What we know:
Chain A is of the alpha/beta class. Chain A has 16 helices and eleven strands. Chain A is 39% helix and 18% strand. Chain A starts with 11 loop residues before the first helix and ends in a 7-residue tail after the last helix. The model of chain A is unreliable at 1-5 and 375-379 (pLDDT under 50). Chain B has helices at residues 13-27, 64-77, 98-115, 168-177, 214-225, 241-250, 272-281, and strands at residues 39-41, 45-52, 58-59, 62-63, 81-93, 118-127, 135-145, 159-162, 182-183, 204-209, 230-233, 263-267, 289-294, 304-307, 313-315. Chain B has a seven-stranded mixed sheet, sandwiched between helices. A five-stranded mixed sheet of chain B has the order 1-2-7-5-6, covered by helices on one side. In chain B, strands 3-4 form a two-stranded antiparallel sheet. The longest helix of chain B has 18 residues, at 98-115. The mean pLDDT of chain B is 93. Chain C has a single domain, classed as Roll (SH3 type barrels), CATH 2.30.30.140. Chain C is built from one helix and five strands. Chain C has a five-stranded antiparallel sheet, with no helix packed on it. Chain C is elongated and about 55 Å long. Chains in contact: A-B, A-C, B-C. At the A-B interface, helix 2, helix 4 and helix 16 of A face strand 14 and strand 15 of B.
Amino acid sequence: MPPRKSSLETLSDWRSGPTIRNLLRAISRETEAINRPLRIMEVCGTHTMTLHRSGLKPLLKEAGVVMVSGPGCPVCITPDYYHEAVIDLVTSQKNIIATTFGDMTRVPTGRGSLQTTVPSPGSEIKIVYSPDEALELAGQHPEKEVMFFGAGFETTIPAIAFTAKKAAATGLKNFTLLAALWLIPPALEAILRSGEVDIDGFIYPGHVSVIIGQQAYSFVAEKYRLPGAIAGFEPADVLLGILSVVRQVRAGRPEVANEYRRAVRAEGNPGALALMAEMLEPYEAEWRGLGRIKNSGLRLKSEWQKLEAARRFNLRLQPGKSLKSGCRCGEVLKGLLEPVDCPLFARHCNPDHPQGPCMVSYEGACLIEYKYSSGEKKK
Amino acid sequence: MKLVSLEMGSGGRLMQDFIREKLLPVFKNRYLGLLHDSALLPAGLALTTDSYTVDPIFFPGGDIGTLCVNGTVNDLVVSAARPEYLSLALIIEEGLEMATLERILRSIKKTAVRTRVSIVTGDTKVVPRGQADKIYINTAGVGRLVGRPQPEKIKPGDKILVTGPVGEHGLAIMLARNNFRMTSRVRSDCAPLIFLLPLWKNGALWMRDITRGGLATVLSELADKISYPLLVEEERIPLSRTLRGAVEILGIDPLYLACEGRALLVVKESEANRALKFLRNSSSGRQTTVIGEVQDKTGRKGEALLRTSSGGLRLLEPLTSELLPRIC
Amino acid sequence: MCLAVPGKVVSLQDDGTGQVDYMGTTVLANFSLLPGVKVGDWVIVHAGFAISRLDRAEARRTLRLFQELEKLNSAD
């Protein structure tokens, strides 16, 4: 029977029980032949979400695959001192509108969170849906300084680069960008180079790959001889990616497979990549948990320094007194620690009283584990 | 210094902790201790109260007037009481347009007629501008018991029913507050549940109107009360098409979105088919669905489980922290 | 966080923005990162920007693969 024409819209095709069962059986056939359980890292927080929300994690375990969460949560890997610099700015200066994405506002730091901060008169912290919106605000409030505190990976960076370019073109003088922009491939390389994490392959993030394409991961297969597959976000998409990795392990032929072909082209999104290269340049950035990684962050190029919030407001983006809560987010982000094995998990750290960003972000492994999984934590 | 946070009133775990730790020990008596939606008083009476602070006061599908009658009426219905009398207390911000107030009063009147309750006492306060947001309303309701909730009799095989698509009120309000650059046809499901009353004599063991915290929170609270685990099927939970699209975009789990005119029922296995037929024949219960049943093999005592459409099992937790849409 | 579901482009404006429909809910999106987008295309939107146009033929190919897996398993 030919698939229905509306196949893109019909979500049930990508979530249906029979399809999932068939994929799981195909996966377990491979792991039986390999004769040992495999550990696969899902790099992206949205994949973590799919696995938990659809209840797939235990089923995969039965099929011989243990999934390990990776660093794919921009809210989680942005160091505290970014938030603290923004908190200092809005509490010490008047008429600043600091804008950011929703879950950034709840991250706890040594100085509270953006949400608990009481800004100076005329200043405020505002949640935006798109960087576009921050620019609109700057146009509407010429008497104020509008700063966009943008955190994101390659998926979000082109939108931010576009907004910066538009701000420069329109000549708005009251818009600045605090860039917390991170690149996935250098982080994967850092994880592999450290040799701390024992995994058999990667599920690459679908929408990061939409932008950067397939080639960006080839070093994983070539230099580190590890399998990997780009996957979409529906339950069947994720399993398809896992099946590909498991098959690569069995065949002993690591590659960068694309199992999300309806959205990801081998070359990525060339227009978006060109825009990123025009506006931004790589630098050695610090990731929470992973430390400093060469060429892993993007910042505005020198010709766009007028848009740079750190320069305009003289922000101190350096490690200060960090929050000493015993939070082990860093190890969770590297796949070294399962959320349930953190001594704080569900005891001193829960969504109502988060001790670290992994319990705050929608993509945070701890929050997802807390919300969707049963068992261990209920003591 | 510890401050009261918004989350303490959001219907989630923080609110339950507050009630258990700060309210119960102080006021404990044999009526309050049961923590039903209404207090069941001597002489077959039930009493309940609720305050309405909805923002905005008018939203697609209803307004604060329809809400303040339906909400209190529904609390009585799910406590097995036929609603009869309501009190109405208005706290109005100075400067509210009289036409707005009159429109709200007309909604209250219309909903009271529809639910066959009389508003028999009330109070009006006006506070200086800025000390309230337009209008807050408190209603208390008195009803006469027509049956008795019997959660202790719930046993494996009993059916779990939902009276229609869930989450539309919560979504309508969320979008009315902040449109997120979205346009949606979703409307609040705000409606009275009085059509459920006959079921108290025909097999219903327990009911709860699904309000803040959504279906998942109600199921998890029910699981806490009874001796067996619950299992519901994701595929059977009614969701409108418009809501499906919107919750995907916002990254919100629809099982945590509030309703204001839907209930969850547990019906004896032997009476379930008849109850379903009865509800589907009533105009307000046309979309009633059996979404699951009480278990003896799957899960452990105290657990509410969801079988996902992919075939996995997932634990339903009560709502933790305020429901925020995914932004980016 | 990524939005898994694709939406359908229902209108385009001169300023490079337009409406994308998700099962009856529409969202304003910026198409500057996706030149040549047309009404009727299925797209992925992230942080207010369309970043990818979906390939229907590839989607159908993947769904056919699911059906082949079904046959493979029933042959077990």
